[in-house]
Amino acid sequence: MIQELVADVIIIGGGLGGTSAALAAAKAGMKVVVTEETDWIGGQLTSQAVPPDEHRWIESFGCTASYREFRNRVRDYYKRNYPLNEQALNDPELNPGNAWVSRVAHEPKVALQVLEDMLAPYVNTRRIQVLLNSHPVHCETAGDQVASVTVEKTDGQTRYKLRGAYFLDATETGELLPLTGAEYVSGAEGRSETNEPHALEEADPLDMQSITHVAAVEYIPDGNFTIPKPDSYDFWHEYKPSFSTYPILSWYANEAEDTSKLRRFTMFPNDQGIMSLWDYRRIVDPSLWSVPLSDGEVTLLNWPMNDYYLGPVIGVSEQERTRHLEAARGLTLSLVYWLQTEAPRLDGGYGYPGIRLRGDVLGTEDGLAKSPYIRESRRIRAQYTITEHDVSQELRGAKGIKRYEDSVGVGSYYLDLHPTTVNQRAFFIPNYPYEIPLGSLIPVRMTNLLPACKNIGMTQIANGCYRLHPTEWNIGESAGLLAAYAVMHGIPPREVRASAAHLCDYQAMLERYGVQLHWPEGTLEM
């Protein structure tokens, strides 16, 4: 059965960029259809179970107003619904999970509730229609335009043919790009093309960043929740990455600041100066509560030990893709089993059998996230391609932050590449805060197709920083408003960039909606 739906803006992918794009376009008066492969919108924050990775200025500036609203709503949710102690209740910068990698670590279900609340006025008035459990299977094009996108429900029984003025690709892997015949790149570019110091000598489209299938776990000191030994455990128990002298299931992994060196980690905070991973991505900290609600703390396993880099999930056959996705799940379950049975403890013992998988936290039965965290997508060939030269602190030098006349937002994060699938390269390159050029959102040929997440015109190395939460949100929001502006003025996005008058008007529109276009002078000294 095929149903036809028509809207101004069709958004394929309901992750973080897709959600912010839908919200922005609806605020601007557009009718929107947004699809999502899982039954949760929100992507990184929800179905992938990755709390926000942010820059050091995030509490004051360096993100859009709607992203700040999301963060404030998360804190308000805990203050309204949880029995917080007085100190936590009065903390304007409450960190619900007290994680050290995120200033607002929180449960995926809370993020889902907040995002649904933000969309509610538009969903309830049918300005936004959300199709869950739906994935794209076919596109119709006419020359340089997308005419329709057909999505199929996961039950295989129902299809929707979606027609609109503009189509936004907000899928995690850039699924619309091959389906529409749009020009794109994947994996690693060659140095001869980008002139980036850290690029490969020769391009390799299959050398992509690792993926991670996150798990949620609780620790009950006196408990025993040991899972059955995973089928792939023996393999992972012996597997040594090319950059390490230790097995992947060990307390040794790449040093973030210098990935050529290894660093020792351990499970819990300690007085020996060894970095703990338990509170790295902790999302439940009962010490903030005035009354007990749960048996223990809950953290998310998104650690170096369950980065999966034995093969890509883009640009390969469906059989191979499925094999790698299943292997990533097996690695995470093997990590859980290793933690429960063999992980060395600082007291000289081995294993923490009190580790318990918490599928209820992630809306699953097995304790693993609904979807893997995929760090790297297909990326459009764009009018402007962001490279290492635009962001690297070393390469920019005294020139400081690169400013673009056509900026549509800002962000900041290290050029952080996790081990790749062919060469197992990893980088953690110091950055300058960056801006998002409109040219990186404009495909070289297609006229009504826009990227709306980590699929903009950028290199693999630049993707290391543009893939994080606040930036993906900003990209989606700016893409949604760009589609709205194009509909309202009857011109394609490329003309918005080409016309000084339209560019000025569009950027003024962004600012009215709370999108920050440039970093304040003196940012680096703040």
Question: Which key terms come to mind for this protein?
Answer:
alpha+beta, 526 residues, 4-stranded antiparallel beta sheet, 7-stranded mixed beta sheet
Given the helix and strand composition, which structural class is it?
alpha+beta
- How big a fraction of the residues is strand? 15-25%
Task: Provide mean pLDDT, rounded.
Answer: 96
Residues in helices, as a percent range? 25-40%
Tally the helices: what do you get?
15
Largest sheet: 7 strands, mixed
- Inertia-based shape: globular
Integer-rounded radius of gyration = 22 Å
Uncertain parts: none
Tell me the number of strands. 23
How far apart, in Å, are the first and last alpha carbons? 58 Å
Structure commentary:
The chain is an alpha+beta fold. Helices cover 28% and strands 19% of the residues. It is built from 15 helices and 23 strands. The protein has helices at 16-27, 65-81, 86-89, 108-124, 176-180, 191-194, 233-238, 318-341, 359-362, 388-391, 393-396, 460-466, 469-489, 493-498, 500-512; strands at 2-12, 32-35, 128-131, 134-142, 145-153, 159-169, 184-185, 211-212, 215-219, 252-254, 262-266, 275-276, 282-284, 298-301, 307-308, 355-357, 373-374, 379-380, 407-411, 415-417, 427-429, 434-437, 449-451. The strands form seven sheets. Strands 1, 2, 3, 4, 5, 6 and 23 form a seven-stranded mixed sheet that branches. Strands 13-14-9-16 form a four-stranded antiparallel sheet. A three-stranded antiparallel sheet has the order 15-8-17, with helices on one face. Helix 1 (16-27) packs parallel to helix 4 (108-124) and helix 2 (65-81) packs across helix 4 (108-124). The longest helix is centred in the middle third of the chain and has 24 residues, at 318-341. The chain is globular. It starts with a strand and ends in a 14-residue tail after the last helix. The mean pLDDT is 96.
